[in-house]
Amino acid sequence: MVYREKFAAEMDALYDNVIELARECHRRLQGCSEVLTDNSTEPARALVTGDKDVNRMEFDINTQVVNLITTQQPVATDLRLIISSIKIADDLERISDNISNIGEVRKRVRITNEKLILRLSTMEKLASLMLEDVYTAYEEKNTNLCMEIITRDKDIDSLFVQITTSDIIEESDVFVTGQIQLSAKYLERIGDHVKNIAEHVYFIITGEKYEKIKRDEL
Known about the structure:
mainly alpha, Methane Monooxygenase Hydroxylase, Chain G, domain 1
């Protein structure tokens, strides 16, 4: 009994740490596009250096996973959560990397085109809402919410195409154009990673790959 209680406590700790990592990435994501317009580069530099905390949290989760697998001999259902936790933590770490990359853009250039900034800010807000909802789905074991989040990624993709193909022609400076396109790409990748997390959460809840379910429905 003591053994099972210890294992359950360690599983709960892993679950909580993944949620904590998601919340930290969500905090970093909110308002990150605003640094692109800031007169000072200090907020951008803080955005970049903040990534080290996420890296540490991901490392701690990976360490927990290794310890659980090597010392506790988890059964298949437990392994589903354990292995998926590594994948979720990896996607969250990559989200944080892309947030830092947006900070790096501001260190190189200040973007002043209001229309393009509005588009980038909208991409950020859509991704932020997706990430907030994905850890709600994780906590509540809500598969319907997972599926909704997955489909919402196309809205971010559409904005990315709009920014990089039509809106960008309003910017005459070639260097600034390139930095705006990079910013849009980083936000588009964040959306992709949130979508990946929603698919991992779907697998944790159901034991089925989301892509397989979609293929079976066709």
